[in-house]
């Protein structure tokens, strides 16, 4: 190709300046701004960039995914960018100089021409002069829509390359010109999309602090670093005037970067040396040490004991002796002692408050004898940390006075008490001691166990449930676990002995059943629909509640919980129970709005597959309370209150527009504990077992109607342990309007004495590809491999009536 046929050669320039646009000419990246503020957000965008660098995905795929998450009309996107994107303050000076000195500017961008043109026109106050060229991607209609409507546009790539726009293609014809006519080719850029172009130029201006600098050094691409366009202008002027050569600029740039790297490595080495010395010998002042990453800013435990006091002695009081001591407010005898109570107390201090005589607790064990030392030194001399100190109740402490111990992950930072031979602790960073405290009159139920937390507790993020890559999502409904403090007592077990000669213990048998199904069914989410805690047998409800979720936490399964009429009959009320659940790993449970009746009125959004931020499923969870507030008029159980119905309807209506943006089918469902009055309608079709009279509220507050009005496909409850049917409600035109299901009772600590009832668990299996929902149950005994009463309740995103017109 001759020079005269190339558009940027028509004025015979000595230099052609190619440049990226976003983050190079501008201070912000316009595409990043749209994604972060109108699309799926900065976190997912940054992860996409990382995946590109690690060759997990092409730039083309990542960039399209970014922009596809922006549904705002295109003209509104431009308006947003005009208000928020700023020009490099020195670019205008370069723009004017280049025009006067015959230096064409060619903008090569992964962005879109209409956006770049609009921004330049805004920056310059007019359309760019003809010495500035724009070569970029474009925009096109999505599915024939107007681009200025919601979700109506998409990026149109410039070429078929992995970049979507291979910038090198625009430069190569100029790089291939004969030396006698070839101009000097310069390029300015900052990111991943500039990699292909960087190789084709004589000199690259790489923005300081960006990935492009490291890449150029590895690939030996000639470059110099710039912070803004003032340095680009100065260097380009010197090259044009002949004061410096491109080769010299590149060499100086490389040397500057390498010197900076060497200085940084030396500084890091010195920092690591100082930190290492400080960790061992605490050489830094406290004011400096306190800001080091290794420093633990919280409190560390310095002592643990048991305080016993007598009901008979008026001068005996179980209260800490000083403000540094904390008491675990749980009587170790669970209020069963005739004459005395006992409490675990522990002392905690901040590092800066530690005295020379203070020691940090590194380990705690329960034993009648002195625990074995962690190491047996060859010289027979034991280190201070190997010595165990006795405390009441069989507690042994291993402590140290070493100054760096408070920063160690070994240091104990919190102490708690749980009860029962099967006590577990699902909290992040906590561990239960294997041996119970050695107390007089100890029984299995009264086995008090210490749980400890070490070091700085790990931060746990709320999980985000998501449809899997195959378009599937499975919910396991656990209803009426009825767990106790301790092993619990079996009620109506079928069979009485699962293993001949082995006594039925309620909680172990319940949890073994749940564990088996978790491993076989591998649900994506678990919904606990009330009566996790059997309040009557849970003198420490926290211990029972922990057992209900430990299996889920261990398997990293997200879970949501609501309460039944028995959960708060122990020593904790609903608010206290929910406060515990909200802070546990993998929990998406929430207390919900304070102005709405009850505790646990909230939604869980299950996002669509891939990286979309759109919801595919919405779960509405509501507190159905406990017992009737008006026994004289409405005997039995409480009902969904008007404030809850208002909250539900307002929430559902506010989400409708957002859900319509989801390009696949969106579905809604609800979970409660106590069944609705409509569950006892004998003329409705049902599938499954109706083995006891539904104990629905005597007062009908109209929640079923609200569910139908807002398009809820099905609602599922618990409460009546031996009912496990799904009932179909129809509207006035005899069309299916709502499925109403029971989960079936799971726990052996609750009743089950009807028709040889076998404990069971209900599953809901969603196929988002076809908009289909299948539901079935799994049994603890008998047909343990079968999917019992499997039925399709939703198909094509719509309610499905049952084909067989008979009740079971």
TrEMBL record:
Residue stretches making up the Calcineurin-like phosphoesterase domain: 473-722
Source superkingdom: Eukaryota
Compositionally biased intervals (Basic and acidic residues): 375-390
SUPFAM superfamilies: HAD-like, Metallo-dependent phosphatases
Single GO MF annotation: phosphoprotein phosphatase activity
Keywords in alphabetical order: Hydrolase
Residue numbers spanned by region Disordered: 373-392
InterPro entries the record matches: Calcineurin-like_PHP, HAD-like_sf, HAD_hydro_PyrdxlP_Pase-like, HAD_sf, Metallo-depent_PP-like
GO cellular component: cytoplasm
Pfam families linked: HAD, Metallophos
PANTHER family given in the database record: PHOSPHATASE DCR2-RELATED, PHOSPHATASE DCR2-RELATED-RELATED
NCBIfam families: DKMTPPase-SF, HAD-SF-IB
Protein name from the UniProt record: Calcineurin-like phosphoesterase domain-containing protein
């Amino acid at each position: 190709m001759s020079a005269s046929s190339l558009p940027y050669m028509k004025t015979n320039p000595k230099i052609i300046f190619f440049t990226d646009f976003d983050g190079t000419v501008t201070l912000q990246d316009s595409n990043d701004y749209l994604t972060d503020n109108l699309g799926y957000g900065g976190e997912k965008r940054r992860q996409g960039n990382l995946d590109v660098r690690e060759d997990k995905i092409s730039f083309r795929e990542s960039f399209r995914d970014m922009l596809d998450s922006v549904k705002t009309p295109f003209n509104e996107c431009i308006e947003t960018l005009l208000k928020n994107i700023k020009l490099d303050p020195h670019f205008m000076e370069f723009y004017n100089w280049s025009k006067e000195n015959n230096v064409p500017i060619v903008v090569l961008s992964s962005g879109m021409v209409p956006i770049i043109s609009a921004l330049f026109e805004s920056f310059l106050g007019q359309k760019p002069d003809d010495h500035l060229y724009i070569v970029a991607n474009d925009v096109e209609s999505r599915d024939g829509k107007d681009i200025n409507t919601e979700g109506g546009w998409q990026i149109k790539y410039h070429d078929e390359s992995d970049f979507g726009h291979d910038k090198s293609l625009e430069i190569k014809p100029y790089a291939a010109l004969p030396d006698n006519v070839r101009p000097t080719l310069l390029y300015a850029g900052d990111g991943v999309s500039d990699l292909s172009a960087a190789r084709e130029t004589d000199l690259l201006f790489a923005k300081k602090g960006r990935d492009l600098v490291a890449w150029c050094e590895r690939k030996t691409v000639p470059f110099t670093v710039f912070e803004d366009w003032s340095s680009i202008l100065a260097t380009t002027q010197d090259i044009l005037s002949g004061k410096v050569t491109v080769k010299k600029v590149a060499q100086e740039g490389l040397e500057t970067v390498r010197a900076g790297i060497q200085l940084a490595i030396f500084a890091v080495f010195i920092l690591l040396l100082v930190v290492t010395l400080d960790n061992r010998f605490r050489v830094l002042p406290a004011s400096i040490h306190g800001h080091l990453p290794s420093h633990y800013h919280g409190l560390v435990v310095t002592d643990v004991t048991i305080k016993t006091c007598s009901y008979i002695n008026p001068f005996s009081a179980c209260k800490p002796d000083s403000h540094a001591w904390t008491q675990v407010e749980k009587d170790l005898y669970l209020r069963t002692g005739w004459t005395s109570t006992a409490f675990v107390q522990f002392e905690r201090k901040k590092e800066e408050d530690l005295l020379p005589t203070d020691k940090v607790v590194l380990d705690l064990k329960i034993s009648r004898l002195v625990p074995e030392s962690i190491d047996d030194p060859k010289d027979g001399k034991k280190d201070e940390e190997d010595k165990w100190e006795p405390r009441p109740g069989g507690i042994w402490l291993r402590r140290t006075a070493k100054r760096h111990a408070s920063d160690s992950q070994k240091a104990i930072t919190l102490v708690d008490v749980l009860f029962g031979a099967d006590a577990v602790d699902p909290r992040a960073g906590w561990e239960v001691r294997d041996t119970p405290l050695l107390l007089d009159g100890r029984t299995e139920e009264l086995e008090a166990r210490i749980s400890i937390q070490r070091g700085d507790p790990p931060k746990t993020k709320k999980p985000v449930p998501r449809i899997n890559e195959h378009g599937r999502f499975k919910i396991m409904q656990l209803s009426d676990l009825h767990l106790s403090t301790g092993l619990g007592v079996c009620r109506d077990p079928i069979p009485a002995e699962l293993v001949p000669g082995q006594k039925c213990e309620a909680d172990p048998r319940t949890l073994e059943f749940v564990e088996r199904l978790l491993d076989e069914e591998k649900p994506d989410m678990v919904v606990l629909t009330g009566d996790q805690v059997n309040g009557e047998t849970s003198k420490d409800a926290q211990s029972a509640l922990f057992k209900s979720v430990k299996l889920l936490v261990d398997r990293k399964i997200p879970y949501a919980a609501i309460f039944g009429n028995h959960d708060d009959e122990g020593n904790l009320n609903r608010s206290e129970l929910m406060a515990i659940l909200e802070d546990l790993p993998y929990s998406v449970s929430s207390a919900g709005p304070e102005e709405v009746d009850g505790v646990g009125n909230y939604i869980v959004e299950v996002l669509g597959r891939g990286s979309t931020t759109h919801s595919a499923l919405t779960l509405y969870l509501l507190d159905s309370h406990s017992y009737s507030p008006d026994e004289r008029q409405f005997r039995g159980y409480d009902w969904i209150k008007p404030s809850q119905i208002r909250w539900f309807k307002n929430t559902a209506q506010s989400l409708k527009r957002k859900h319509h943006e989801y390009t696949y089918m969106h579905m809604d469902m609800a979970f409660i504990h106590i069944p609705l009055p409509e569950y006892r309608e004998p003329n409705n079709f049902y599938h499954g077992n109706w083995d006891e009279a539904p104990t629905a509220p005597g007062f009908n507050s109209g929640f079923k109607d609200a569910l139908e009005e807002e398009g809820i496909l099905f609602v599922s409850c618990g409460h009546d342990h031996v009912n496990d049917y799904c009932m179909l409600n129809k509207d006035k035109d005899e069309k299916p309007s709502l499925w109403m299901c029971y989960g079936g009772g799971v726990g052996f600590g609750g009743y089950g004495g009807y028709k040889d009832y076998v404990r069971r668990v209900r599953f809901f299996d969603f196929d988002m590809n076809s908009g289909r929902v299948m539901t079935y149950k799994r049994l603890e005994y008998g047909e343990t491999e079968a999917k019992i009463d499997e039925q399709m309740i939703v198909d094509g995103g719509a309610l499905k009536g049952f084909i067989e017109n008979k009740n079971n």
